[in-house]
Amino acid sequence: MSPDIKELSPSNDLLGNDTQLSEKFAQDGFLYFKKIIPHTALQKLRGDMTTILAEEEWIEGEDLQDQAIVISKPYREGDDEYFRAHDRLIKLESLYSLAHEHNLMNLIKSVLGETAFPHPLSIMRLVFPNHNEASTPPHQDFPNNQGSKRLTAAWIPLSDCPKTMGPLKVLKGSHKFGVMPLSFHLGPGNRQADLSSDLECLDWYSTDYELGDVLLFNSLTVHSAMDNRHITSMRMSVDFRYQPENEPLTEICLKPHFERVSWDDIYTDWKSDVLKYYWKDKVFNIDNYDHIVHKLSEEKEREAIAMSLRYEMSTGEMSAETRAKLFKAINE
Ligand SMILES: O=C(O)CCC(=O)C(=O)O
Ligand SMILES: [Fe+2]
Predict the structure, then answer these.
(1) What is the pLDDT of residues 209-257, one digit of tens each?
(2) Cα of 226 to ligand 1 centre, how many Å?
(3) Same domain, yes or no, for 18 and 146?
(4) Are residues 326 and 308 in the same domain?
(5) Which residues surround ligand 2, an ion (CB under 5 A)?
(6) Cα–Cα distance between 96 and 240 in angstroms, integer?
(7) What sign does the dihedral 30-35-38-44 (CA atoms) show?
């Protein structure tokens, strides 16, 4: 695996030719498209998110709000402060309506077929600048989501996102190597894939994304984020997952991200009823979630504790939970 990043080339020229799109997707494990989603839908969501983030004092407000200039210390998924803001963000109607946006759905249906639909689970990423310990590590989505092997993620930046701002990169052809073993990582999902030496011949691809661009990738495709080296601003993006009907999915894909609020809570202030519980009309089987796929070995569990501890000490804080885990690990 060369450390050099190759340039993603857009597949817009294949739009209208569903067979060629599907073949390229099957070959590479991803498809990249430029200028698919209208800016209005993206800017609406970004505006709603930055309003909450400014109120929560993560970022500058007023004239600077849209730049998402960070004024707080960096938070990561799992921190109380992270969840305080996220519990508000996860209710935004503009998040879920973006997953159903017309041009995006047309694209997804070209690739996955007419019955393709988004999972209700819709994820936003709030990546602090120069918080590289928490950059998303190389991983496959399959262990998290399981279900259909045709499960496809759409990664969508909510601003122009040059390589210096830590966008996603993908490892071309990696979806052909099966489900990989896992280790702990401090980044989102707390898991990274252990990449075997068989993958050394593969290349990473990324680009300077622009607002409106979409990256699609299969749930077995290895992907990770580059570091956000912007001097001041958060990288904000969303990722949605799609699959055709008549394929299995797991319960987790039907729940709100982090499962801290209910759909009824999420829907309280929505203006439209159209997208509420839309998946109830869809045809799919529910697969049991296999916890073993996501579980760490005991040795890796111990490494995880050590890494969490080092991180929390470097931030000058230690949660009661980490302290309790550490105490247990030391005294075992
Ligand atoms: O945006 C990120 O940093 C992670 C995104 C990701 O892993 C995904 O879309 O599956
Ligand atoms: Fe992922």
Answers:
(1) 999 999 999 999 999 999 999 999 999 999 999 999 999 999 999 999 9
(2) 10
(3) yes
(4) yes
(5) 141
(6) 9
(7) positive
- Average pLDDT (275-281) is 97
Same domain, 241 and 305: no
The tens digit of pLDDT for each residue in 202-212 reads 999 999 999 99
C-alpha–C-alpha distance, residues 18 and 14, integer Å: 8
Asked if residue 311 and residue 283 are part of one domain, the reply reads no
Q: Give the ligand at the shortest distance from the Cα of 161.
A: 1
| 138 vs 141: CA distance, rounded Å | 10
Closest to 153 (Cα-Cα) out of 191, 110, 122 = 122
Q: From 239, 240, 257, give the residue whose CB has the most ligand 1 atoms within 8 Å, as the site to mutate.
A: 239
Question: In angstroms, rounded to a whole number, what is the distance separating the alpha carbons of residues 26 and 31?
Answer: 10
**Pair (218, 166) in one structural domain:** yes
What domain range is 311 assigned to?
Answer: 296-332
Q: Whose CA is nearest to atom 8 of ligand 1?
A: 239
Nearest ligand, measured from the Cα of 187: 1
Cα of 218 vs centre of ligand 2, distance in Å, is 10
Q: Residue 180 carries which side chain, given as an amino acid letter?
A: M
**Ligand 1, atom 4: closest residue by C-alpha:** 136
CB burial of 287-298 (b: ≥16 within 10 Å; e: otherwise) equals eebeeeeeebee
Looking at every residue in the chain, the average pLDDT score rounds to 93
The number of folded domains in the chain is 2
Looking at the fold, whether 121 and 226 belong to one and the same domain comes out as yes
Assign 81 a pLDDT band (cuts: 50, 70, 90): very high
* Widest distance between CA atoms in the chain: 62
Q: Which ligand is nearest to the CA of 136?
A: 1
Same domain, 86 and 196: yes
Give CA angle at 251 (247, 253), nearest 5°: 75
Q: Based on the domain organization, do 212 and 232 belong to the same domain?
A: yes
**244 neighbors 208 (Cβ within 8 angstroms):** no
